[in-house]
């Protein structure tokens, strides 16, 4: 006997009230403890807007998803939108200049080969119901580490500009000097994925596993799918971090001149 999704989380007024309270708590804590990076940033406001956007976007997706899972054109369009939004989001977090679009490289470098391998081996059919959630998980993971690695690397290079110049004075190429500073801090972006994989089943039961169980799959099959997702995600994220650091070390992806290294 399988667990009904309806019994897990009923959609009613109580859920709406609880979500509103949790969003208010998140914004309130950010405001009370001043969890903003600088005076110009308004993190509580960002939290509220993010919550409202998530609600609106998920409502829209609920309408569009039917077309996407039944039409090849709809599936392709949905995946392109997912990728485009990820690139724009990552790029905006890293820089305000024209180089933001280069965040497409680290996101695509790991996601595209992985999804292609799944399709070519027949492990995942070219159907929206299977491809959209897996692609979404991989794109989301690549987006997260691209932002984390990029911000850490750019911040560190700006802070330790003198060390880069000193290394170049000793004969290092600019790319190598910048890489020595950027790579160690950027690698920290892999820690959340590593911790999630190491503690799966002990601390958390990730979404793919729970979703498979709710859909009627056996625990063994659900575990196999989740294992694949976690390992594929680590591969995608490692590639994304490597490409991000390379772009920054080569000064292809950088911040505006006033803050450049």
TrEMBL record:
It is a multi-pass membrane protein. Pfam families: UPF0014. This is ABC transporter permease. Its main location: membrane. InterPro entries: UPF0014_fam. It is found in: Membrane. Keywords: Membrane, Transmembrane, Transmembrane helix. The chain crosses the membrane at residues 12-34, 54-87, 99-124, 130-150, 200-221, 227-249. The keyword Transmembrane applies. Belongs to the UPF0014 family. It comes from the Bacteria. The keyword Membrane applies. Signal peptide: none annotated. It comes from Streptomyces endocoffeicus.
